């Protein structure tokens, strides 16, 4: 089963994907996390990706698509995966369809998270991530603070702010790119009949964990 998390930066895609991953056993494949791990390890891929990520731009498809194609061949993805941050453009979605169809697979479900813009910016500014690349837990200083400030509850490593979350220009650029390049995917997947749109917002007291519960129940129904 291939599940895609869609939604602007800061909607909580990673959080929801993590909960679905725990419930289903499907791996969460986050292109952003793979890039950040490579950046921290200063690999050639990380050095190349950082040129784009630090500005809030998309990493070119020549780098991103083969990386995802390879990751989908890993043993843990033999029953499928939850893609978090990929595809981000129509071209990437078409390439993903090709990659999957070669294996007789397809996109089964697209969870589209929608959050008001003012909340998105605030969520990015208050997001903190665990510096331990094996843990990668995410917190929010307002909505989901760690028990001890600056320290990960799960593994005890220090928390930090993502470089692209602390730069207002990079935040603006990422939201512009989302509107221009990624939001057309909503229509793309709606036409395929696999889209499930969910609002995540403080204004209606509906958070990522509520959406994750809904999706997990939906998957249980499908598997009956
Ligand atoms: P994320 O953690 O999903 O917000 O991704 C962080 C950054 O990684 C993005 O702002 C992009 O620069 C880059 N990135 C992540 N996924 C992709 C993708 N599918 N295509 C191109 N760039 C990506």
Describe, in plain words, how this protein is organized in 3D.
By secondary structure, the chain is an alpha/beta fold. It has one domain: Rossmann fold (3-Layer(aba) Sandwich). 48% of the residues lie in helices and 16% in strands. It contains ten helices and eight strands. The protein has helices at 13-24, 31-40, 44-53, 61-71, 90-102, 117-126, 163-166, 168-182, 184-191, 208-222; strands at residues 2-7, 28-30, 81-84, 107-114, 127-130, 138-140, 159-160, 195-199. It has a five-stranded parallel sheet, with helices on both faces. Strand 5 (127-130) and strand 6 (138-140) form a beta hairpin. Helix 1 (13-24) packs parallel to helix 10 (208-222) and helix 2 (31-40) crosses helix 3 (44-53). The longest helix is centred in the last third of the chain and has 15 residues, at 168-182. The chain is globular, with a radius of gyration of 17 Å. The structure holds adenosine monophosphate. Adenosine monophosphate is lined by residues 9, 31-32, 35, 52-53, 56-59, 64, 85-86, 88, 92, 164, 174.
């Amino acid at each position: 089963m291939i599940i895609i998390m869609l939604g602007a930066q800061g909607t909580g895609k990673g959080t929801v994907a993590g909960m679905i991953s725990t419930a289903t056993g499907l791996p969460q494949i986050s292109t952003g996390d793979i890039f950040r791990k490579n950046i921290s390890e200063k690999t050639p891929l990380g050095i190349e990706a950082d040129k784009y990520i630090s500005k809030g731009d998309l990493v070119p498809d020549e780098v991103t698509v083969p990386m995802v194609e390879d990751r989908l061949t890993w043993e843990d993805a033999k029953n499928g995966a939850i893609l978090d941050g990929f595809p981000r453009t129509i071209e990437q979605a078409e390439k993903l369809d090709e990659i999957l169809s070669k294996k007789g697979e397809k996109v089964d479900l697209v969870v589209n998270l929608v959050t008001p813009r003012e909340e998105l910016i605030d969520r990015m500014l208050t997001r903190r991530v665990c510096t331990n690349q094996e843990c990668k837990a995410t917190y929010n200083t307002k909505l989901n603070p760690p028990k001890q400030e600056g320290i990960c509850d799960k593994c005890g490593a220090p928390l930090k702010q993502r470089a692209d979350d602390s730069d207002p220009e990079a935040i603006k650029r990422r939201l512009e790119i989302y509107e221009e390049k990624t939001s057309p995917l909503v229509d793309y997947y709606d036409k395929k009949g696999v889209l499930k749109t969910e609002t995540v917002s403080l204004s209606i007291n509906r958070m990522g964990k509520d959406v994750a519960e809904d999706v997990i129940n939906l998957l249980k129904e499908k598997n009956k």
